[in-house]
């Protein structure tokens, strides 16, 4: 184990031990003991939605320690069994090859599995799998492997290494997992930055954005859904890898979007054996968890067996709370939100503390399946506190190990269900299944058509795209065709016919279909100028009448166009939708190296002469990207533009100079061909100009003098070291996207929205107090300086930002504490994380009076990122 992990583990043990000493008299470790129950006894402990019922599918010894489940086309259930996970309180034997992948069959159709095949054993901590042709991809022992069954006996005959670094070096709770097949035929992982795809019988590895912690799924539109143990539901608002294309711009929206701020959970038993149970506010008076601490495996139900009200809902496992949360998702424009339809009562909960839901799935019957590890210990030993250890031993939760159950949830009036299996379906039947109302059927049909590579499916797929009645079927047909080799001689499936098909699909009345066609046209447009020009003309002619969901995809896809069509298209989009942070990020993602060209166009536009906060933000973002691009000719031209700025355009000059100061690096100044007049003026009181001057050299001015560098550093960003400067720059971009709408780009506050941050003791004062405001929000009147702000001068409540990760919040706080004359120095790197832990259980915004009553705190110790 690495030294930092040892240090942190010891620190958590010391802190937990000290804090737990004073709690023993309050929470007796022997109350509400949790005896081991048989599957039939556990069944009686469940509370479920009244119109549903739960059935046992499999249990030990057939299945042990299940952590991932998936159905194959024949209706067999594949189970990853992590039998080495916390087999003892000290994690003994964790690196022993005790794990396995089992295949379970129901041979008599009674709904219970009665036959088990060990497909692959002797695995070290297996954590994820994906069903592929001939076998599975399996993540174990830190690597990714391909295990194949070549004689169809449900036993792996070979094991080939695909990626030795897939999950190397990560602890069990914090290493890549999931291997979720996306609509675009790539396999994605939670807690990982790579994706995989089979092309021409070879596995491709590609980078992608980091997402989530444990488990992943997608909705009907293909949007990836994931979460973190402390934040139950996040999703991508845009397809993968779009917003990360421009190295000159760091997006702040679109990926990792928090769908709900509601962290509350409603267990039906005490949950004292949780890692942070010693922290006041973690448990209520009955010892029940108040909020998520171990959220995992979010699953979008896309089936048809459960009542219609459940379709599209996202279910989230909370194994420490012995429950499953239900979320209803709503789309408004390009944004998604979610809410609990029945606050106070969970979708599923148990009075058995050993009920540990860790994975969800759907199958060919449309039911919702639950993998239950059924054990006492779910916290990994590296992060276990003395409090949890004491609770575990006193309540005899450490044993037995190697149990496990699989459950199925079905409607009460339809307890006997028939699975529609696709293993023996013909090509024609599989194409028809792409239009099924059931998501599992569509996904499986798409996968099988691609794997079989049957030319006979080509014409049927083309016909489905052109004439299919169901939009989802037309969309799946497009993605299936995209993955099939374009070598068929059949009319409509040849490579030369593909552009015509996609251009026709661009006019599809359904946005999912037309946006898929637009995405699939991109690689063709890159390769063919005629296609590129035709696509650009079409987008220019249609974007202004398109709904915002379509406009977003147009802004993303515009990257493939040439400048004569790209620039007017993006200028029009960002002018109309400049108030949407996601549109700003999408626009910049399509402009690598061309940010200055768009800035010039907007500078000359009559729509960009009057000051508006959103336009100010975007000009600043453009300027930041321009200097990160480090093109001397562009920067010379930009600085010359500023020199000729008329007096009434000072807001634009300020925005550009601010952007340059944020994005530049005085340690690596850009060398200009000529001296920029705006930076060679006589001594100027403009401190932003002084900062910008440190970012360049030119003939006769090889490097700013040390005094000038130090002066600019003191004035512009005081007390910040090199790493803090990076935090400051990132915090500025995040602030512009999330905070400036209420507090202004200059921190002076906005009438009817938010009070000023510049010169505010709330900002420059106690770090923990400031972190609490961002984590939970603030309501009521607040005094800044000598003035009290209250409704209607400001909004009644500042919302929480708890769905943002610790690093993002730290960056924002570092920025606002050191801008607009504030000189509070960097935010402690561990303050937000530890504050999130110690304030767990706070479910309402703070008032100024409450915050003022809190004692001042020093920089906080590091947090455990776990349960």
TrEMBL record:
<dbReference type="InterPro" id="IPR011042">
    <property type="entry name" value="6-blade_b-propeller_TolB-like"/>
</dbReference>
<feature type="domain" description="Cytochrome c">
    <location>
        <begin position="726"/>
        <end position="820"/>
    </location>
</feature>
<dbReference type="GO" id="GO:0046872">
    <property type="term" value="F:metal ion binding"/>
</dbReference>
<protein>
    <submittedName>
        <fullName>Dehydrogenase</fullName>
    </submittedName>
</protein>
<dbReference type="GO" id="GO:0009055">
    <property type="term" value="F:electron transfer activity"/>
</dbReference>
<dbReference type="InterPro" id="IPR009056">
    <property type="entry name" value="Cyt_c-like_dom"/>
</dbReference>
<dbReference type="InterPro" id="IPR016024">
    <property type="entry name" value="ARM-type_fold"/>
</dbReference>
<keyword id="KW-0479">Metal-binding</keyword>
<dbReference type="InterPro" id="IPR055557">
    <property type="entry name" value="DUF7133"/>
</dbReference>
<dbReference type="GO" id="GO:0020037">
    <property type="term" value="F:heme binding"/>
</dbReference>
<keyword id="KW-0349">Heme</keyword>
<dbReference type="Pfam" id="PF13442">
    <property type="entry name" value="Cytochrome_CBB3"/>
</dbReference>
<keyword id="KW-0408">Iron</keyword>
<dbReference type="Pfam" id="PF23500">
    <property type="entry name" value="DUF7133"/>
</dbReference>
<dbReference type="InterPro" id="IPR011041">
    <property type="entry name" value="Quinoprot_gluc/sorb_DH_b-prop"/>
</dbReference>
<dbReference type="InterPro" id="IPR036909">
    <property type="entry name" value="Cyt_c-like_dom_sf"/>
</dbReference>
<dbReference type="InterPro" id="IPR011989">
    <property type="entry name" value="ARM-like"/>
</dbReference>
